[in-house]
UniProtKB/TrEMBL annotation:
Ranges where the record places region Disordered: 1-60, 448-496
Name listed for the protein in its UniProt record: Cytochrome P450
Gene3D superfamilies given in the database record: Cytochrome P450
Entries under SUPFAM superfamilies matching the protein: Cytochrome P450
Species for this entry: Streptomyces desertarenae
């Protein structure tokens, strides 16, 4: 039986004295009225003393050397450090591997329900904050704990598991070939914008049963939402509009896709719950897979350990992907948890309702676990990159499949791929949640643009010569059958 989701304007149990509407989801961009009193994003009252020396998680320093930034915070503060999000919003960043696991695995003491967030309850976060598309409460599984979380997560997990992994890999190969076709003859490409940012979303449109044309529009909208720019709210509205139409279409005409399977699941999700889970998976899967693919490609092209061992057969591509998940997680910071009472963490006093962030990139290099940055992990999957505990990512294997199959197809088509600029000229942009490679220019030997998954053109029908026509007329109008060489590329053991 479906459980109606709570009104977001109503506080969760145990949260007293809440102003009306404090938990309402974000409103229109450039929302109505003045910012709430004391909003740190609008120059309100000063930050609490414990955040006087807080470190911004965004900007040039975070983009240039995030690992160095985390180590400096670790040396100064220990396992938990005061930080600022876009707009000067304060939070605590967990840097210790064990501390992250303890918080992630204990939802009774550290809830995921954003309605416990004290700064939001007390009116210091405006409804039009660009952080709200990421941190705002919604009727989805990551905003819930306990039985409701299990009901919603079960629907997502069960629906994702219905996909045949081999079919997903075939879809990735087919889409990747089409992308490579567009630049194979040029001898040069920019692999972030022309490949890594496009492939995950086009595969997702297949899995969702969305029209292919929606993919390109969703790529940019998803990036703006996660970046937390001034366009984040507009991008979120755009995504909601597309997905709301999709839910209506799939209710009328279901198919073998993620949206239809959520609709028919025994958890009996409401239309709003379905929409929010479609949004959740779309945005997170695209963001994490895009970054994972871009980071892996950069390492394959620039790091002698990867380039040499991949060519020499001593490291498989899946093992290389796992190494990147240790060294450069697609999300460097995972939001958010909220203590259900005052407590001490890593020698720091945190208050009930403080915003805690899981610094998974920092946790993966915590000296306390005996690992140094860049150390070869030989496929070890005990990293934190997909979260842990009840909220661990249920679609992580699909992300691995899309990344590995996409890169495998690219390297098979363009085996002499190499970086077109010195590695030190590569640049990044950082948000509070992730670090994005801006561009990855490459060169290679130009090749004929051909997608081996495209069927050959249909043979033209033979035309019989009219009665009395001269001999040889039939040959003049007949055509050779197309080559069947493309079929050999689809046989087992051959890469497409």
């Amino acid at each position: 039986m479906s459980t109606p989701f709570p009104d977001p304007s109503v506080p969760p149990p145990g949260v007293p004295d809440v102003p009306p509407g404090a938990f309402a989801r974000h409103g229109p961009a450039g929302g109505a009225g003045a910012p709430p009193p004391g909003c740190p994003a609008h120059g309100g009252r000063p930050l609490p003393p414990e955040f006087a020396d807080a470190t911004p998680l965004y900007g040039p320093e975070a983009a240039a050397d995030p690992a160095g930034l985390y180590e400096r915070m670790r040396e100064r503060h220990g396992a938990i450090a005061p930080v600022l999000l876009e707009g000067g919003v304060p939070a605590w960043l967990l840097l210790g591997y064990e501390e992250i696991l303890q918080v992630a695995r204990n939802p009774r003491r550290f809830t995921r329900d954003t309605r416990h967030w004290r700064d939001c309850r007390e009116g210091r976060i405006p409804v039009d904050s660009p952080l709200m598309p990421v941190l705002g409460w919604r009727p989805d599984c990551i905003s819930q704990d306990g039985d409701e979380h299990q009901r919603l997560r079960g629907a997502v997990k069960d629906s994702l598991e219905r996909f045949d992994r081999r079919a997903i890999r075939r879809a990735v190969h087919r889409r990747a070939h089409r992308l490579v076709d567009a630049f194979a003859g040029a001898g040069r490409a920019e692999l972030v914008g022309q490949f890594a940012q496009v492939l995950p979303m086009t595969v997702l449109t297949d899995l969702y049963g969305l029209p292919e044309a929606e993919g390109a529009r969703l790529v940019e909208a998803s990036r703006q939402l996660v970046k937390g720019t001034e366009k984040a709210l507009e991008a979120d509205r755009h995504i909601h509009g597309i997905l709301r139409r999709l839910v209506a279409d799939k209710r009328a005409e279901p198919g073998p896709d993620f949206a239809s399977w959520l609709i028919e699941h025994g958890a009996r999700l409401t239309d709003e719950e379905i929409l929010q889970h479609l949004r959740l998976v779309l945005v997170l899967a695209n963001e994490t897979t895009t970054n994972l693919m871009a980071n892996t490609l950069r390492m394959v092209l620039t790091d002698p350990r990867f380039r040499g061992t991949l060519d020499g057969g001593r490291m498989t591509l899946p093992a290389a992907v796992e190494q990147i998940l240790w060294d450069e997680p697609p999300l460097t910071v995972v939001p958010g948890r909220f203590p259900t009472h005052d407590m001490e963490i890593g020698g720091r006093r945190v208050r009930r309702g403080d915003l805690l962030l899981l610094g998974v990139a920092a946790g993966n290099t915590d000296p306390a676990i005996g690992r140094s940055p860049g150390q070869d992990m030989h496929g070890n999957r005990s990293h934190l990159s997909f979260n842990s505990g009840p909220h661990e990512c249920p679609g992580q294997d699909i992300g691995r499949a899309v990344t590995g199959s996409g890169i495998d197809t690219l390297l098979a088509r363009l085996p002499d791929l190499h970086l077109a600029v010195p590695e030190e000229e590569l640049t990044w942009t950082a948000t509070s949640w992730s670090r994005h490679l801006d561009a990855l220019p490459v060169r290679f030997t130009p090749r004929h643009a051909r997608n081996p998954f495209e069927p050959p053109p249909a043979p033209r029908p033979r035309v019989q010569p009219a009665a009395g026509a001269p001999a040889g007329a039939a040959a003049a109008v007949s055509h050779r059958r197309p080559s069947r060489g493309w079929l050999r590329l689809l046989r087992p053991g051959r890469r497409g």
